[in-house]
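To: structure subgroup
Subject: Chain for Friday's discussion

All,

I'm putting the inputs and outputs inline so they're searchable in the archive.
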Amino acid sequence: MPSDFQKLCVIGLGYVGLPTAAVFASRGVSVLGVDTNKITVDLINQGKVHIVEPDLDILVNGAVSTGKLKAAATPQPADAFIIAVPTPFGDNHEPNLDYVHAAARSIAPVLAPGSLVIIESTCPVGTTERVSRWLAEARPDLTLPHQAGPHQTGEDAQINIAHSPERVLPGRVLLELVRNDRVVGGITPKCAERTAALYRIAVEGQCHLTTAATAELVKLSENAYRDVNIAFANELSLIADKMGIDVWDAIALANRHPRVNILQPGPGVGGHCIAVDPWFLAHSTPNESPLIQAARGVNDGKPGHVVKKILAAAASADADTIACLGLAYKADIDDMRESPAVTIAAAVARDFRGQVLIVEPHTDDLPDPFKTHKNASLYPLAAALEKAQVVALLVDHRDFRELDRDRLADKTVIDTRGIWR
């Protein structure tokens, strides 16, 4: 292990921050994880986790047991700091960097010459340099890499800053954190080189060095690319519905072409990446991104189409109970951020006069959108299927994929994932 990275501080212990902290701790680095949520901090210090991710509980428990991983509410001095906090958008899809700004302010007092600061949060282009400026304002006694004058260059800065976006898939986070290549963008080449040296402690994939702005654009372009391709599949599903065609059959046959690979349609797009990041590009360059904006419109509109199908099916069946299966944004995880399933189920509960039974095996409580809908309640799968006349599959969790199809024989089924065809 390089001698200049003995201590690491990770700001934000969510779906990326906690696995990152645990992986580095498992490699022998002393890691302090920082989070503003006291419950999260207390759980981690007990060797427990607050999110669902395969094997994360084992890794965290082991790291805490050996003393290599601890959690706290405030940062402490370290050789390197990783910022892994949310970057949501506002009502008009403008980027909200409040969490990144707060994280930068929180670490400023404990920075020292030689400190390395890495932003893993997905950000609009230019954010890494903004962090450098924020830190310079908070610590005028230190030189930052964006500064250059008659007697100094960014390479001579006392603090190094880089952007290295996470590129992991929920459900495979621990594996992909280690195996995937990293894009490492430094404000200066030295910033990138030091960041790569840190990641090589834990990462088996290659580290590709570039500028901070390029690294920011790379992450946004990766998710916008996915969003555009999903939008094509979702738009094709709307066309197929209109024409009375099974879209999954059509896609399977189209994909027999050697140069065609259409993705699978669904109820919309969720998660904190694909549903959010394209807006960062659209906000920065609105006149140059009509395709990206159109894709966002298709994917954001898909939940409304599904709601209409469910309500129409309930009316046709004269149903008094609807079961909505799944709330997470993808299969076999508990992450509900930007989930189209939540949007759909909440809208059904709002507009349906009967009972709405929510089945989500990865939660013990309904999220806030359901608090005002007294007709919606969390139910076990078996009980929901017993009562409901209409069943809407919104997430292809394993429990639903393995369901005996005979249980659906007398139901009206809306399958948004194509697993019960």
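Points worth raising on Friday:
The longest helix spans residues 212-243.
The first strand starts at residue 7 and ends at 11.

D.
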